[in-house]
Amino acid sequence: MNISFEIPHEIEQRIQTDGNDLNREAKEAFLIEQYRQDKISHGQLADALGLDAYETDGVLKKHGVTLEITAEELREEALSLRDVRPK
Predict the structure, then answer these.
(1) Cα 35 versus chain centre, distance
(2) Which residues of the chain have pLDDT under 50?
(3) CA torsion sign, 85 to 75 to 47 to 35?
(4) Helix (H, G, I), strand (E, B), or coil: what is residue 33?
(5) Looking at beta carbons, which pairs linking 57-64 to residues 24 or more positions away fall under 8 Å?
(6) Angstrom distance (rounded) from CA 80 to CA 61
(7) What is the pLDDT of residue 64?
(8) CA 54 – CA 60 distance, rounded (Å)
(9) What is the enclosing helix (H) or strand (E) of 58?
(10) CA of 3: how far to CAs of 8, 15, 16, 28, 84, in Å?
(11) Which backbone phi and psi does 64 adopt, to 5 degrees?
């Protein structure tokens, strides 16, 4: 899906001077808002951004989004960590 919108020229001039990828920033902001609204899952957010789960957590933290994890998700995470730890 492609989404586009126009912004006033003076805003464009101001934000384009820092050299950031504005398309990437807009995509990230949109997807994070969808995550905040529970419209997409953490995994879907990670896939859409092309990141792994840890990197996605960093992006969410950067945007001030706290991770809400259920007791069951925490239990599953702990079990998966036990499976990968060295013996």
Answers:
(1) 8
(2) none
(3) negative
(4) helix
(5) 59/28, 59/32, 60/32, 60/35, 63/28, 63/29, 63/32
(6) 23
(7) 92
(8) 10
(9) helix 53-62
(10) 17, 19, 19, 12, 40
(11) 75, 25
Model pTM? 0.70
Pick from 48, 52, 18: which is nearest to 31 by CA? 48
Distance from the Cα of residue 46 to its chain's centroid: 6
User: 63 with 32: CB under 8 angstroms?
Assistant: yes
pLDDT in tens, 32-45: 999 999 899 899 99
DSSP letter, residue 23:
H
Please give the backbone phi and psi of residue 66, each rounded to the nearest 5 degrees, phi first.
Answer: -85, 145
> Which two three-digit tokens encode residue 65?
């989004």
Cα dist from 7 to 12, 19, 51, 52, whole Å: 7, 17, 28, 31
Structure tokens at 2: 């492609």
* Single-letter amino acid, residue 65: V
